[in-house]
Amino acid sequence: MKPVSDHVKENLQILFVGFNPSIRSSETGHHFANPNNRFWRILHEAGLTPRRYQASEDEKLIALGMGITNIVPRPTKAADEITKEEYKEGREVLKKKIEKLKPKVVCFVGKGVFQEYSGKKAVPWGRQMDSVVPGTIDFVAPSSSGLVRMNLTEIIEIYKQLADLVSSK
Q1: How does pLDDT run across 124-133, given as a tens digit for each residue?
Q2: Taking the CB of the first residue and of the last residue of the chain, which one, N or C, has fewer CB atoms within 10 A?
Q3: What is the pLDDT of residues 25-45, one digit of tens each?
Q4: For residues 13 and 68, is the Cβ–Cβ distance under 8 A?
Q5: CB-based burial, 10-38: b 16+ in 10 Å, e otherwise
Q6: 14-167, superfamily in CATH?
Q7: Is the pLDDT of residue 59 over 90?
Q8: Domain segments of the chain: what residues?
């Protein structure tokens, strides 16, 4: 399986960070491509995108000041297939990427992604009090996976906080 290319540039408003690409994302070459993943719907309904984008349009987020990467590049069927070694390496690569790109906000798509990145156990939704990389804001949002049991309306409300955060500047 092939990794999925990052869509990033310097000084983004938001850099979304997922666990790793799904099998479907690897097959298509696009982020959040699994039909059961609600990422694109959530972004639109939270007011982050002017319309509902398709996974095949993931590179168009750059024009909106948003980018996408993952903590681990290897595609898997499920996040529980990621090894401790992959997380350790991914954490260092991601930190360097954030230091270089200097996004305003780093949005972790899933509490577990931020926990693996930061090493913190207790993590609230939304803006974090301390950021791992100084000069950026760490924001934790629910995973957009269709496997998440959280109500979609609740998920969208948390992503709306992200929209408010970037529109306040």
Answers
A1: 999 999 999 9
A2: C
A3: 999 999 999 999 999 999 999
A4: no
A5: eebbbbbbbbbbbebbbebebbbbbeebb
A6: Uracil-DNA glycosylase-like domain (3.40.470.10)
A7: yes
A8: 14-167
